[in-house]
Amino acid sequence: MEVMKTLDSNAWEWLVEKPPTQWSKSHFKTHIKCDILQNNLCESFNNIIKTARNMPIFTMLEMIRCVFMRRIQWRRDKMSSWPHQICKNIFDHVQQKKLEACNCTVQWSGGPKYQLDAGRGNQYVVDLDNHTCSCRKWDLSGIPCAHGIIAIHYKGGKAVEDYVHSYYSKDSYMALYNNLIMPINGSHDEAKVAARVRRKLAYARTKAAAAAKKAALNASQPNAAEIA
Ligand SMILES: [Zn+2]
Hints:
Layout: H1 2-7, H2 9-16, H3 40-49, H4 57-80, H5 88-100, E1 105-108, E2 113-117, E3 123-127, E4 132-133, H6 137-141, H7 146-155, H8 170-176, H9 187-220, H10 224-227
The structure holds zinc ion.
Residues 124, 133, 135, 137-138, 145, 147-148 line the site of zinc ion.
GO molecular function: zinc ion binding
Protein name: SWIM-type domain-containing protein
Organism: Prunus dulcis
């Protein structure tokens, strides 16, 4: 922050008013298992619906419904043929971290904690029981960092994928996409229903008018007692 203050005092003043939990990973909570700082998720959603956003409201909603109806089934099909226990992007990420882990050395204290030396004076503590590392990358993301991967290999017995948080498992993914959006009938049925409603309303109005006319006629005619 002090460096930023010297570089741009306006940026520093703007940022210092914001709670650090909104922009600094060092203050992010770890139970969420998400280290994303940007709002790219919203932008991806907006990109999908940008064509529909220019449409009238019912057309827009119908287009979005159809997009997600197809998308959910497409994702379910794709994931059902995936052979690993964690999702593809996370699997690829772990493979990359395994390569980075080659530069670390490990020392074991005898308990669940390991001391990792990443070179250049960078030293971290990995706790395999709690799935944490003092670099905080594992804590924030739920995915073992390079230091954690070295400790996992050193301990042996379980695969790195076994230490990835269950949020990223294939089972969780399939459970998430288990709620299907069902097909619905088109507007031609709506037109039939509307016509049926109009006919019933017209019949009710005619019947009410006839009843009112009859009542008025009866009221205008003198009864037998008045005639006598
Ligand atoms: Zn780490």
